[in-house]
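Hello again, I could really use a second opinion on something today. I owe you a coffee for this, so here goes:
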Amino acid sequence: MDDRKLYTLYQLQSDISEVLAEAFTDSLWVRAEVSECSVNRSGHCYLTLVEKEEKSGRLLAKCSAVIWAQTYRILSAHFRSVTGSDIVAGMTVLLKVQVNYSELYGLSLNVRDIDPSFTVGNLELERQRTIAQLSEQGMMELNSSLKLPSLPRRLAVISAENAAGYRDFIQHLHGNLYGFGFITTLFPAPMQGAEAPAGIIAALDAIAHHIEEFDAVLILRGGGSVMDLVCFDDYDLALNVAQFPIPVLTGIGHDKDYHVIDMVAWHNLKTPTALADFFIELFSHEEQAVYSLITRLKLALKSKSQRELALFDNMKVRIRSAISIKTSDALRKVDLLQARLMAADPRTLIAKGYLVVLKDGRRIASGADLIPGQHLKVMFSDAVVECEVISSEIKTMTYERENEL
């Protein structure tokens, strides 16, 4: 005879239910990640809770939970008021649960309460761990060390196509009062929820394939709740932004805190409109610098022209003075030469009582050149007399004057 104790499946399940009921008489707080969340037409919220190994992500535990409609209306409103978001997949939550075991459906948890501050605090802890990891890897200032072109006009924009923030940015940028021209190319991506990091990374990859066509990347979102923006604290997304080969600028639309991608980006501003103003002001400053340079060049040219004209006028005065002096000197020399010529003119000598003796048309300066029989012409001031040399005797003037005396 078989002496083994046999259980029917129902008996086994019933015994398990009794043991669990005795072991867990009171509600208890359980921390878990929400992997699935759905609300049916009756308003009941059904959750799948999991726990994963921190380093590997390997699944360690899994359990179903339910928040009945009446409780869910109260808890969801409170959770939303604190976190700004509904309970969604991907959140780590702290739930007050009652353990139930059904012979038909197995183990489940009946949610009685939820602590939204735990979820917010857990997100901050994750955020700080992400920042610490990126800092250790030297990623915090990698993108900000890149050089933004002085006139960045080719902009790759990552945003949701129908987002109000994106529309505001486009209208503000392209409608600027200065008429500056920009080229914007949209790379659509989800900007909230669990799928946002992977979507934005995919957009960055698409831009990277045409990197030479762009001066900068802009990530835009028009604000949102804490939970809406938690995707911008994602480690993989922040790592991709930090390592991107051209400057990445963010305008996520938050007023209080910076998100991790703000910290690793080249520059961040609070809103998409503020980001548009940033680029408009860059062009405005460059335009002012050009106008200032033109003004300085005009003043420099005017000043140089005035100096050159002054030098030219001074040179004209000096040249005129030099010409006047040279002319006066030349005139004096001419007068002197003229006086000398006049003094050497035979007519001048004749007018003074001197005689000019000519032989064959040439002046005779010495009596030694004369021989008897030569015919000469003697020029007086009022007549020319022809004569013949009878005799010639050489005497000095001194000798003649002594004899005359």
